[in-house]
Design goal:
The longest helix is centred in the first third of the chain and has 10 residues, at 57-66. This protein has 238 residues and is an alpha+beta fold. It is built from five helices and 17 strands. The strands form five sheets. A six-stranded antiparallel beta sheet has the order 7-8-11-12-13-17. Strands 3, 4, 5 and 6 form a four-stranded antiparallel beta sheet that branches. Strands 10-9-16 form a three-stranded mixed beta sheet, with helices on one face. Helices cover 15% and strands 33% of the residues. It has helices at 57-66, 106-109, 175-184, 203-208, 228-232, and strands at 7-9, 15-17, 20-26, 32-41, 47-49, 53-54, 80-84, 87-92, 95-101, 114-118, 121-126, 129-134, 146-149, 155-156, 158-159, 186-187, 223-227. The protein folds into two domains: 7-66, no CATH class; 80-232, no CATH class.
């Protein structure tokens, strides 16, 4: 049998050798078990695994750092609510913003490019996915603050990105880019069956009533059935 090379070349100055392997065992439930094995080579160059060892959190931490998952130190502004290597969550104070409406709804198209007030918002970025909730308070939310459904087309918690230009990163410096990307994209259609507002005449009537107004009426926000703590939880996949 021909010998198998166990090297990987990345660039001109780096050569990686296969040293260890992680085996993951899964049972019939959600549980899992992992073991770490040293890799040796036989005389003919074929790699084989040594007996396994218990996988430690120290090893996983070192592996994650080696793969570039370590978050660089950042000075967090007061609008940042949560930060992990995979997630960034922040809140936005109520303010006026221009909105763009597209799609086939004629009444919606009449609102395209106009200025509207917006409620306080909670944004969450996981990878390249953006999630949005609203809140009723203008002060910094706490873990028990109730989340409200964000009153926007293309948004069923997770944003249907459509024409949105997704930023390349989700560090603190990219927060304005994510907000601009969201509001500079076109809102074209409802996303899913989620009710977006309690306004008695519906979604379009809500935004028609808000043209050039100063403040968003938070009484028309719909309860999302979760707290901020639940919204940021890694087990909450929405």
């Amino acid at each position: 049998m021909r010998a198998i090379k166990t090297y990987v070349n990345i660039g001109a100055n780096h050569e990686f050798k296969l040293n260890e392997a992680v085996l993951i065992y899964r049972g019939g439930s959600d549980g899992a078990f992992a073991s770490l094995h040293q890799v040796k080579q036989s005389e003919d160059g074929i790699p084989y695994l040594m007996p396994g060892e218990v996988l430690t959190t120290a090893f996983l931490r070192t592996l994650a750092q080696g793969l570039g998952a370590q978050v660089k130190p950042e000075i967090l502004p007061d609008n940042v609510l949560a930060r992990t290597p995979d997630m960034l969550v922040w809140w936005s104070r109520p303010r006026q913003r221009v909105m763009f409406f597209g799609g086939v709804n004629e009444e919606g198209q009449k609102l395209n490019g106009l200025l509207f007030p917006h409620p306080p918002l909670i944004f969450k970025v996981v990878g390249r996915d953006l999630f949005v909730r609203a809140i009723t308070t203008s002060s910094r939310p706490n873990p028990q603050t109730p989340m409200k459904t964000a009153p926007y087309w293309n948004t069923d918690v997770r944003v249907c990105q459509g024409s949105m230009r997704v930023p390349d990163s989700f560090d603190v410096m990219s927060i304005p880019k994510w907000e601009d990307a969201f509001f500079q994209s076109e809102f074209t259609h409802p996303a899913g069956a989620v009710r977006l507002t309690s306004h008695p005449e519906g979604f379009i009537a809500l935004w028609q009533s808000l043209v050039s107004k100063k403040r968003f009426p938070v009484r028309y926000l719909i309860d999302a059935g979760e707290t901020l703590q639940e919204f940021v939880s890694p087990t909450n996949e929405h």
